[in-house]
Amino acid sequence: MVLVRSIIRPEKVGIVLSELLSAGFPAVTKMDVYGRGKQKGVKVGEVFYDEIPKEMLLMVVEDKDKDDVVRIIMKYARTGEEGHFGDGRIFVSPVEEAYTISTKKKGL
Fold first, then answer.
1. Which of 28, 33, 8 is nearest to 83 (CA)?
2. How far apart are CA 12 and CA 90, in angstroms?
3. Any idea what job this protein has (predicted)?
4. Which residues contact 6 (CB under 8 A, 6 or more apart)?
5. N or C: the chain end with fewer CB closer than 10 Å?
């Protein structure tokens, strides 16, 4: 199992979640987050914003599904053909174990 953690633009969340659901990946945790990337923030006029609003999507999926999930997020979270600064990041980490609390079952 792997944890796919993606940080994307808020306006892209709806389409990303819809496409993940259509592809058979309904289980997602979504959080509002704030931060900055390599560009170190954004200057609009005389105002500098160094905490940009984003959404974080957390998903634990089987190893065999990782590439499909990453591909979907990459395709639908990107702005335009070439993409732009601030489109986000995807991090993939191993998950050793997972449990369902209500059933006490191990695994997904």
1. 8
2. 14
3. Could be involved in the regulation of nitrogen fixation.
4. 16, 56, 57, 73, 77, 88, 89, 90, 91
5. C
Cα(62)–Cα(20) distance, integer angstroms: 14
Helix boundaries (H) for 27-106: 66-77
Compute CA 45 distance to the chain's CA centroid, rounded to the nearest angstrom. 30
- DSSP code, position 10: G
Integer Cα distance of 31 and 20 in angstroms: 16
What is the structure's pLDDT at 56? Answer: 98
How far is it, in rounded angstroms, from Cα 2 to Cα 36?
A: 25
Average pLDDT on 81-94 reads 92
For 31-80, the pLDDT digits (tens) are 999 988 777 777 788 887 788 899 999 999 999 999 999 999 999 999 98
Separation CA 104–CA 9 (nearest Å): 35
